[in-house]
Design goal:
Elements: E1 2-7, E2 10-13, E3 18-26, E4 33-39, E5 46-51, E6 57-59, E7 67-72, E8 77-82, E9 91-98, E10 113-118
Parallel strand pairs: 2-10
Antiparallel strand pairs: 1-3, 3-8, 4-5, 4-9, 5-6, 7-8, 9-10
Length: 119
């Protein structure tokens, strides 16, 4: 199994920045893709960004140009740099991993970290 531990959430004013981190452990040889989803109460979890081991990325349209996903393969860690944050970015952010990018979001999941953007 793969274990994922997120950190870096918090409260920030609109226009501010936050950086999320997620460290993977366990059966990491099974991981090619890592990424971030977010969820607000009453809505489905949605993809924010994903990245393959080789560096291919995909982003939700709503965060393109503001968020940047990166990873350190040696540390089995993925990062999400979030700039120009908006109140609508407020959500619980979950880290996830998958054998390849196309099935990112099928699990496993981290415990989630709250990001709150005040207006």
């Amino acid at each position: 199994q793969v274990q994922l531990v997120e950190s870096g959430g918090g409260l920030v004013q609109a226009g501010g920045s936050l950086r999320l981190s997620c460290a993977a452990s366990g059966m990491i040889f099974s991981i090619n893709a890592m990424g971030w989803y977010r969820q607000v109460p009453g809505k489905q979890r949605e993809l924010v960004a994903g990245i393959s081991r080789g560096g291919s990325t995909n982003y939700a349209d709503s965060v393109k140009g503001r968020f940047t996903i990166s990873r350190d393969n040696a540390k089995n860690t993925v990062y999400l740099q979030m700039n120009s944050l908006k109140p609508e970015d407020t959500a619980v952010y979950f880290c996830t991993a998958a054998p390849y990018l196309g099935i990112l979001g099928t699990g496993p999941w981290g415990q989630g970290t709250q990001v709150t953007v005040s207006s």
